[in-house]
Amino acid sequence: MPKHHYGKTVLLALCAGLIGGMVSSQFFFGRPVFAEKKPPHETVVRAELFELVDEDGNLRGSLAAGQGAVTLRLAGKRSTFLNGFLGRNAASIELGSYAKGKINILVDKEGLQLRLFDQLEPPRIRAVLGNATLKNEDSGRIEDRAASSLVLFDESGKVFWKVP
């Protein structure tokens, strides 16, 4: 073979190898694959109910949504609790201890109330600050108290002091 054919043969072999490599990579390997980036952490969690448990697995709290309302309940180890309710027409926060009594703050269509309860079972209301609806024992007439009123109740649940 003459010397000038060696250069043409090498050039032809290089071109054939390049073309063959390109064609074979299209048929046998497809598109190149690269490692995906790590997805970012979620910043939003969507659920209808969240439950909080302690190290022993006891339920200590919950956050729930349903029937047009949102409810938050938290319970401590020593019978302390906090309950929150947010509905369409009312909002309420209740906190206290089963052994010491509870406080309830209620906002509804009637107005605002702060109510104090004793520790008996079932808890009895002992004081109301704000809008109160009272039933007169003698006449049976319903009395709506002003938002600035304070009403105190005795052990039997009867009104013993009210202002204004």
Count of strand segments:
12
Instruction: Note the main sheet.
Output: 10 strands, antiparallel
Give the termini distance in whole angstroms. 124 Å
Mean pLDDT: 80
Shape: rod-shaped
Structural class: alpha+beta
Strand content: 35-45%
> In what order do the strands lie side by side in the largest sheet?
1-2-3-4-5-6-7-8-11-12
What would your notes on this structure say?
The chain contains 1 helix and 12 strands; from the N terminus they run αββββββββββββ. The chain has a 10-stranded antiparallel β-sheet with strand order 1-2-3-4-5-6-7-8-11-12, with no helix packed on it. The protein has a two-stranded antiparallel ribbon with strand order 9-10. It is an alpha+beta fold. The N and C termini lie far apart (124 Å). It has one helix spanning 3-29, and strands spanning 49-53, 59-66, 69-75, 80-86, 91-97, 101-108, 111-117, 125-130, 133-135, 142-144, 150-153, 159-163. The longest helix is centred in the N-terminal third of the chain and has 27 residues, at 3-29. The radius of gyration is 38 Å and the shape is rod-shaped. The model has no long low-confidence stretch (mean pLDDT 80). The protein has 2 domains: 1-34; 49-163.
